[in-house]
Specification:
It is built from 8 helices and no strands. It has helices at about 5-15, 20-35, 40-65, 65-70, 75-100, 110-135, 145-160, 165. Helix 6 crosses helix 7 (about 145-160).
Length: about 180
């Protein structure tokens, strides 16, 4: 039976010999320092991955199947990478800025509010994109949801007050 200290020494010894583990550890440490991942962070990145997968499903549906879509280059890693790389970098930068804002103010509520707003908007964008993708793939049952998303987005862009059903009151003030 191996002791806890012996097991720890064995793991450290393996890491000291494995450059990939060292680089991975450094990258994980940097990531954790920059964003301190929490549930909202993971939810956002799950939504980003689901958006990418839903786009692949749309392309496969339009081409008559996944294999056919890859053969016709409707689905290809270069195209997907170029289309997604800028968005992924932008989202990552936003999550870093949100988390790092905690170093600017002494109140924990400010970065929490900022992260809620930014993560919420980015998540909403992904939700909208996934809904559009599936409607484009032929899931007509989602069309009313897409219509509502677009209507609320237009209201937001026009600076209109949300309807009472969203704010919880008749006059839009939550009363």
């Amino acid at each position: 039976m191996i002791g806890v200290i012996d097991a720890f020494v064995m793991v450290i010894d393996r890491v000291m010999k494995d450059r990939i583990a060292q680089i991975g550890g450094v990258l994980l440490g940097i990531l954790t320092y920059l964003v301190e991942p929490n549930a909202a962070f993971y939810a956002l990145w799950i939504a980003v991955v689901l958006d990418l997968i839903s786009r692949i499903i749309v392309e496969a549906a339009h081409a008559g199947g996944y294999i056919k879509a890859t053969k016709e280059r409707k689905i290809c890693s270069d195209k997907m990478f170029v289309g997604s790389a800028i968005k992924i970098v932008a989202y990552f930068f936003m999550t870093v800025i949100v988390y790092q804002s905690k170093h600017l103010v002494a109140y924990e509520q400010v970065p929490l509010l900022l992260s809620t707003v930014v993560y919420g908007i980015l998540f909403w964008v992904e939700f909208h994109s996934i809904t559009e993708n599936f409607v484009e793939a032929g899931v007509e049952e989602l069309r009313p949801l897409l219509w509502r998303i677009k209507r609320e987005q237009k209201r937001f862009e026009d600076g209109e007050e949300p309807p009472a059903s969203v704010t919880g009151g008749r006059d839009g003030r939550g009363d």
